[in-house]
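Comment thread on ticket #2218

A.B. wrote:
> Attaching the input chain for the structure job we discussed in standup.
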Amino acid sequence: MHQLRYLLPALLAAAVFQACSSTDSKDHSAPPPTSAAEQVARGGKVFGMHCAECHGVAGKGTEDAPPLVGSGALPLNPRPGQERSEPFHTALDVAQFVIHNMPPAPRKKPAEADYWAVLAFALDANGVALSRPVGPNNAASIVLHP
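C.D. wrote:
> Ran it. Output below, let me know if you need it in another format.
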């Protein structure tokens, strides 16, 4: 587990770099993922395009945004001064908050499927094994904090 602490940010940075340097101009009409791995890969690209600016290239947070990866990521209770008021018991709790609040205005919101892809990406980067794509039908069953 100790080695993963260093490996995950490196993998995250590599995925973001690939997403940002790619000339692939996929829009938000990407087909639904057929596997968790496909969704996680899509989430890495979307993270690079929409989230890395605030949450940091490695997802470890900045002065302006909390970490999505590593120590302190996705805590049960809101941090002092944070916009959310509800706890993150499950992946669905995280999704509902993010879909309704991120990115902050006036930035353009990505497609809903992209939110689920970023969630899959963040869960995977934090060591949550996904057996299938994450979505509204199964996110409540992914328990982050009992």
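A.B. wrote:
> Thanks. Noting for the ticket: The domain at 2-22+34-141 is CATH 1.10.760 (Cytochrome Bc1 Complex; Chain D, domain 2).
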